[in-house]
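Q: My hope is that you can spare some time for a protein that puzzles me. Underneath my words sits a plain record pairing an amino acid chain with its backbone structure tokens. Those tokens are not coordinates but codes from a learned vocabulary of shapes. Thank you; the sequence and its tokens follow:
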Amino acid sequence: MIDEIAYKIEHAPAYASLILNLRTEQTVLVESGAMAAMDSCIKMNSRVRGSLMKGLGRMVSGESLFISEFTAQGQPGKIYVSPGVPGDIQHYYLHSNALLVQSSGFVACSKGVEIDTQFQGFKGFFSGESLFLIRATGQGDFWFSSYGAIIEIPVAGDYVVDTGYIVAFEDTLNYQVEMLGGLSFRGLKTGILGGEGLVCRFSGQGRLWVQSRKLYGLINFLNPFRPTKSS
């Protein structure tokens, strides 16, 4: 494997952190703000990779995806990476295929990996909170994260997953977003805003990764405890 980065994942699956051991002059791209600590020989440069669109309210303007570039200069160095959401981290090596990852799942990758943030995610308009995906191609290491533990599912045929649990999947799988059961228009509207009632039907052969928890469940749990202004 060309320019493979030595790594170790600790504290998985609840509070996983990623440790990258860079060789001299080796470079890694990391989600902006995810660097927790590093050796002083490692130098950082921030840059933007395209326009990452998130959510129904930002479909026109989009949101920039910031990625920090770290290089071990003069000697080997170690960098600690911690995703913003408590959960798991998964490693994947890209070679001749593509990997589709939920927009918030990017953690780090080798310099040889290309990240397409203009890719419009799920086919069809109605796809819940995971409307947009990033598409990773090229060759090299790629790490992605989840809320909760990551479960790898080998798909051979058909498989159905709630859109809120999808973390990543290989591009050898075909997919189609659809409503779960006979939802009314009112039910569909609630599903889009609350992440319920929409599933993704996969077909073909490839690997799929899902998370053991759904972020909307945490949001709904915390919502009653939000401070509110008295009238």
